[in-house]
């Protein structure tokens, strides 16, 4: 592959920062250039530049690779591992080095960079790979031929101009391109453009000014680029001072701290990230001592120290409210990214719920404290009078609420056949209960119809589902046979014998399958509510339990099940009630409670016959959640 001939500059190229004449670094004798770069490399180790503990090369190498596996959605390759080690001055393992054909690897990287430099194409993962090559340029002098090494430099220089020409400030690719400009200046000194390095710092500040939009771009696609972006931001705050003599002020770090909170909120106890299939071995660079999870704490120690300790199971809030220990908020939701994290507490041992609803698919992960109890795509099948229907648009958020008792999110998706699917997720924080429910609503102006409904929730890989032989309850147990969660279908009958409005079963492909249908068509065209209740509190597992469908009345008339429903759940001495309106907001009654709302949840104190309100959703209710 011959070196590329520079083309005529495009308008975006003319607006990009000027770069050093490429002939500058090719004119001096090669040996003198190589010796000078190697000497500079030894004098400025990355551990010192990044401020890793005791200027550790291992920590610096881990920081270079942090977030890359998650962004790549696969474990790191031997080449990526070795490049990180070489860049940090660490002797890589001989077995890994022996597996690499450096000339072939460089040729492949050149092809990737050439493809990446196509107009309108800035792939963050490819730029992150190019960064590893840039950081490792000095030691690669002794592993690549002179022409190949110079072509790598030339292509990286062109990639900088391409990335910095991106006009969207929140762009992750543009941000990483800015780091590439700083790295080339760090590694190649006067052979790289000082103007590009200065421009990179300006791009970094523009990313910060983009604030919420910049964070949203980093966490899109299930938080795929969150750690990668956070690692680059941290490195750039250090490189800006070391390379461009520009100190990033504390007031510019607000979005960086917000992103750090998102990364912690999406973290599993073993250091992996939510909604990902990677193992802890694949992400060990992220949580290695002195790497990303240790270094970002310095940005806001009072907030991030307890947040990261709690997320990794190393600390707990001990019942203290967030403001007492400066913890971040416990509900994180970005409508732009279609991502949410519901945390009963920051202590990971209390479990968490993660949701990615961007597009038509709805991905969910319900953590029980040691891993996912539910994890994967929440599938739904709906038919109207036996005719299968399909989604007619993306999911959108319609309600969000959080307080000391509960966290609640509600979403809606339009379907064909005049159907709306409303999905509700409620986390009772102290009670350690979760409600996952669907309401299928048919447009009222349409003629009556029978609605059929099936949903499938994937069971976590580390758990096994065991149906109770007599009741409709399903236990989720771990490999040691320890019960981790109890699943109840509130629309089903409690006992397996006799008729039931719904069935909950375990499928051969490890899903909880809930099937139900609306009652015979009425004047409003039908509708149904399909709630699943999960209990994650072990102390209640051996106590008596029951659940019932309650009678709902409207002006002395018992309403149909496709108009409004209410359920009572009793686990030991603790009881809860939930209510859902399926047709309009009317003042209805159940258990002596008069209510005008779309949705309602409360603790029921049987001794006093009173309800302790936890959540009310409805436009006319003063205590209603904020609808969007």
Features:
single chain; 628 residues; alpha+beta; Beta-galactosidase, Chain A, domain 5; 2 domains; nine-stranded antiparallel β-sheet; five-stranded antiparallel β-sheet; 32% helix; disordered N terminus; disordered C terminus
Structure report:
The chain has 628 residues and is α+β, with helices and mostly antiparallel strands. It has two domains: 29-324; 351-627, Beta-galactosidase, Chain A, domain 5 (Distorted Sandwich), CATH 2.70.98. Strand 24 and strand 25 (593-595) form a beta hairpin. The longest helix has 19 residues, at 146-164. The chain is elongated, with a radius of gyration of 28 Å.
How does the SSE layout of this entry go?
Layout: H1 11-15, H2 30-43, H3 46-50, H4 57-65, H5 68-72, H6 78-87, H7 94-98, H8 102-116, H9 124-135, H10 137-140, H11 146-164, H12 172-188, H13 194-210, H14 212-223, H15 226-244, H16 254-265, H17 284-287, H18 292-295, H19 301-311, E1 331-334, E2 339-342, E3 353-356, E4 363-367, E5 372-377, E6 379-384, E7 387-388, E8 396-402, E9 406-415, E10 419-428, E11 433-442, E12 451-458, E13 464-467, E14 474-477, E15 483-489, E16 502-506, E17 511-517, E18 527-535, E19 545-550, E20 553-554, E21 557-558, E22 564-571, E23 574-581, E24 588-590, E25 593-595, E26 599-605, E27 610-617, E28 626-627
Antiparallel strand pairs: 1-2, 2-3, 3-4, 4-5, 6-7, 6-12, 8-9, 8-28, 9-10, 10-11, 11-18, 12-17, 13-14, 14-15, 15-18, 16-17, 19-22, 20-21, 22-23, 23-26, 24-25, 26-27
Helix pairs in contact: 4-6, 6-9, 8-11, 9-11, 9-12, 11-12, 12-13, 12-15, 13-14, 13-15, 14-15, 14-16, 15-16, 16-19
